Task: structure prediction
Amino acid sequence: MKTIRINRTGDADVLEYEEIATPAPGPGQARVKVEAAGLNFIDIYHRIGAYTLKPPFTPGMEGAGVVDAVGPGVTGLQPGDRVAWTMQSASYAEYVCIAAEKLVPLPEGISSRQAAAVMLQGLTAHYLCHSTYPVKPGDKTVVTAAAGGVGHLLVQMIKRAGGWVAATVSTEEKAALARSAGADEVILYTQTDFEAEVKRLTGGAGVEVVYDSVGKTTFDKSLNCLKPRGYMVLYGQASGPVPPVDPQILNQKGSLFLTRPSLGAYILTREELLARSQAVFDWMLSGALEVRIDREFPLAQAADAHRYMEARRTKGKVLLIP
Ligand code: NDP
Result:
């Protein structure tokens, strides 16, 4: 089968399109013919060696397709079943073997492309605003990179939960997308000081929660946007890692809460994985959630897709099609 391999960590050029043996499903696994794989920032972190995955490996933590074979001991799944997954590696390939218990059945009406576009970022948006800091009607929030993969979905979910959103984006084009997702206010943080603007918009009071995916360049200002006892939910680092923080700063700024969550810890059980997926699929089917597919690249062009994301050009989801 065709696959993308990383034989050494580095820039996008290390993504090589190779032919390898099609894997056989082991005990408890199903083999899936991949119809679409999702591109995520975590793939870039794996590629550059920021997170620990030792080469050689096939990247990709998300996708959807059709079960093609099952290994010993698998019940409840059979060839022909349509499934999706997230936080399972080696998705940049024509076939992938995954533990059956990590596969989510796809309902009628959700295509493989839509599923591959929503599993990682959609379930992330879901846990952020329903579990990490559950948004209540009237809560004021800040969402960074609001036209991005997670951001665009998170804005919609916060609005659905009755919250108010100040969205930050870098360009006018992205501002229009954030507005279409329902953001109450949009701040071009490349031109305007978003801390001052959030304070102005909230009459100096600040917000209950900041969902910050940008990290290094926004962290300090995000903390300053919070009300006393507010929640700083730092879930990403698109601009680079945040330097070490003295906990005393949380005291000084008003008994703040700081958390650095990740999706893996919010889909620990099969019940939780299925419940979050079901909620997201239901909203998609009812039209309550728009999943925006920005671009599709052939699997062989994975390096171009990585460059596109690193250049800050994504407006929604990027898919790789084997
Ligand atoms: P996005 O589609 O949001 O892309 C990243 C966005 O970050 C850019 O479009 C850009 O938006 C903004 N950005 C700001 N500064 C930079 C910079 N220096 N370089 C690149 N981008 C920058 O990506 P995702 O939604 O997929 O992921 C966003 C972050 O969230 C990543 O760090 C990712 O690892 C993390 N994440 C964490 C998860 C978790 O469970 N903790 C799960 C999923 C993602 P703009 O131009 O508007 O500023």
